[in-house]
């Protein structure tokens, strides 16, 4: 498993947290930890099966900007 942390802008509430978690899990994340105050999302995924760019696209498709 591989872990990576994204800096994400625009998250401010529980709905934002749920939207990002769902998007990342659909993109192949096995674990997602959203820190709203810090604007960070830690993701764990299988790098042999899933692409980090796909994770980034999933966050952006959910309506948030990745810094």
From TrEMBL:
InterPro entries: Heavy-metal-associated_CS, HMA_Cu_ion-bd, HMA_dom, HMA_dom_sf
CDD domains associated with the record: HMA (cd00371)
Classification via Gene3D superfamilies: 3.30.70.100
Entries under SUPFAM superfamilies matching the protein: HMA, heavy metal-associated domain (SSF55008)
Provenance organism: Tumebacillus algifaecis
GO MF annotation list: copper ion binding
Descriptive protein name: HMA domain-containing protein
PROSITE patterns cross-referenced by the UniProt entry: HMA_1 (PS01047), HMA_2 (PS50846)
UniProt KW keywords: Copper, Metal-binding
HMA domain boundaries: 2-67
């Amino acid at each position: 498993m591989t872990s990576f942390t994204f800096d994400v802008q625009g998250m401010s509430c529980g709905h934002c947290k749920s939207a990002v978690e769902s998007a990342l899990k659909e993109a192949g994340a096995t674990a997602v930890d959203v820190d709203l105050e810090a604007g960070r999302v830690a993701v764990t995924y299988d790098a042999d099966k899933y692409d980090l760019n796909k994770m980034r696209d999933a966050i952006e498709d959910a309506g948030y900007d990745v810094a």
